[in-house]
Amino acid sequence: VLDIEDMSNVQNKASLRKGLKNWIAIIEDHYGVKPIIYSGEAFYRDILKPDSYFEEYPRVWIANYNRVNAPRISWDFWQYSDRFPVDGIKTLVDGNVFQGSQHDFEALLIP
């Protein structure tokens, strides 16, 4: 998973997107699958999605904790909370949902 949530102070948006595409190509070449991109909804929409490569990216995990029914952009995973209670865990954890079937999820796993 590529976690990208902030702009760098030393490069512009085009340079950032170019570096991300390079990293994704290296990971895809090594593992044989495209990595999942994790990002906040606004960052993905405003910084990455203007590039057609990211507009159609196949595996996206979006964080949006703003009490919405779902993110307003295309997503595979949605992190809807960072304060989700789980029995047996003393601290609050991230709450996530996958948009797909069990079979779809298992297809993402590397054998």
Biggest pleated-sheet summary: 5 strands, mixed
Rg over CA atoms, rounded to whole Å, is 15 Å
The CATH architecture would be: Alpha-Beta Barrel
Strand content: 15-25%
Average pLDDT level: 94
Please indicate the count of domains.
1
Text of the CATH class: Alpha Beta
| Assigned CATH superfamily | Glycosidases
Tell me the series of helices and strands, N- to C-terminal: EHEHHEEEH
Question: What is the structural class?
Answer: alpha/beta
Number of helices: 4
How widely separated are the two ends? 16 Å
Assign an overall shape. globular
Task: Order the strands across the largest sheet as they lie in space.
Answer: 1-2-3-4-5
Percent helix among the residues?
Answer: 25-40%
Secondary structure: number of strands: 5
Which spans of ≥5 residues are poorly predicted at pLDDT below 50?
none
CATH fold name: TIM Barrel
Please specify the SSE layout and strand pairing.
Elements: E1 2-3, H1 13-31, E2 37-40, H2 41-48, H3 52-55, E3 60-63, E4 77-84, E5 93-98, H4 102-108
Parallel strand pairs: 1-2, 2-3, 3-4
Antiparallel strand pairs: 4-5
